Amino acid sequence: MKKVTFLLLMAMTMCLLSCNSKQSKSEKAAKTFLEKSLVDPSSLKDLKFESMDTLHETFDETVAGKAMLAKADSFKRVSKVYDEMWNDYAMDKSAEALKQHNKVIKEYNKLFKTYKGKEFKGWTMNATFDANNSNGKTIKGTVTFELNTQGDTVKMVRVKNEETLSLFSVDYWNMLK
I need a surface site. Which of 42, 47, 73, 76 has the fewest CB within 10 A? Predict the structure, then answer.
């Protein structure tokens, strides 16, 4: 019984250490990312990270999701073709195609919101920090990062507001194009 308890305790400790090291590794990668992309990297302070969360495929990345979007797009294209004909029959067909488009999009949105992807893609992590924009004004920034499965490659995928955007250099935004 003591051996089982000891082994269980060791396993839990290893799991905890593994999670902490991945979190630390990811935080370091995210901090490096910020230091390279901020207008004034030396002003970075009060950097805080939330716990990492798993990132799975989304519905739009699945075969079914792509097929639904293609179907909706085809209904929209048919509607546009009929719109250009300017007669009662064509207008009815256009309205019918548009109705089908909306029906597919409504179903797609429902599936998108409820889809629980099976494929593990990596991690997400939110960060808040203070930094100066190009005018020297200190702004509180909030961003979301996506990290690969190892937690060492970072890309910023979301900023909380327009003020946060002003913290990043033009070079950073040009890299994204």
Answer: 42
pLDDT of residue 19: 46
Of the given ranges (43-47, 70-74, 173-177), which has the lowest mean pLDDT?
A: 173-177
Judged by DSSP in three states, 136 sits in coil
Q: What is the pLDDT of residue 55?
A: 83
Coil, helix or strand at residue 9: helix
Query: If DSSP codes are grouped into helix, strand and coil, which group holds residue 86?
Result: coil
CB 164 within 8 A of CB 141: yes
What backbone torsions phi and psi does residue 94 show, to the nearest 5 degrees?
-65, -45
Best CA proximity match to 124, nearest among 144, 143, 141: 144
Alpha-carbon gap, residue 51 to 81, rounded angstroms? 50
Distance CA 46, CA 23 (A): 17
Q: How far apart are CA 102 and CA 83, in angstroms?
A: 16
Residue with tokens 């739009």: 60
